[in-house]
Amino acid sequence: MASTLFALFAFAANSVLCRLALGENTIDAASFTTVRLLSGITILFVIITITSKVNRPNEKVKTKGSWFAAAMLFIYALAFSFGYISLDTGTGALILFGAVQITMIISSVISGNKLHFFEWLGLTVAFTGFVYLIIPSLTTPSLTGFILMSISGIAWAFYTLLGRGSNNPLNDTAYNFLRTSPFVFALIAIVFSVSHIHITPTGIMLAVLSGAIASGIGYFVWYMALAGLSVTQAAVVQLFVPIIAALGGVIFTSEMITLRLIESSALVLGGILMVILGRYYFVELATRKVSNKN
Predict the structure, then answer these.
(1) Where does the EamA domain start and stop, copy by copy (predicted)?
(2) 27, part of any domain
(3) Distance CA 89, CA 47 (A)
(4) Who contacts 74 (Cβ-Cβ below 8 Å, separation ≥6)?
(5) What are the pLDDT digits (tens) for 177-204?
């Protein structure tokens, strides 16, 4: 329970830190992503070094993440940073985790789990909430920000699904971060050649906090928490992140919670909750019928 709560607050903290950095123009999005991932790599391997000497000096590393997970992590982080250039904290978190849940639901359907009527209804309600968030105005949030944060959410959904099979959360998280290095160096090369670099000490500090604490340690703890959570539980608990992030935006970035955001949040989160509860209800009902027959 404690690890799950820590991970959820870490997710929300990433939204707040990124919005603080980009909203105040203390650092550009590409540099924020770069510092964030490199900080995550550093802190995770410091932890691995310490724990291996203290607890398992002779144990060899058996798991080292995967290139696919690393690619999803990099896409998530990059789209996340550029998406938050034009999105408020709460709006960005709602789009991000709404996209996460919808992707996980679709993945479940593709893998052979059929949706019942109540679940399809919930998915329709959630999608309606997304549409309502950007219509009639495509500037609040911006369409570009919406698309980028949706891509970020899709990538994070795949990263989460991969994490459920992790036998060594610390090593997998650390090596997933390390495997983003080639992508990070390519990003640095592109930015230096075609874009303007803008970095301040405050921006670096916010990126390091996001990378080392909220991302590096946060994602390691999330991989630990996933071992004790079902897919349904993992989906449900993440619904609280947009709420925490929105409150963080009010406290730390002086943002306003608009009526449109509240209404859209109710539709998106309510619709996803309908899908999750609908799946739980029908599975339980089917299980009871089988038990009664036996």
Answers:
(1) 144-276
(2) yes
(3) 30
(4) 37, 180, 183, 184
(5) 999 999 999 988 887 777 678 889 999 9
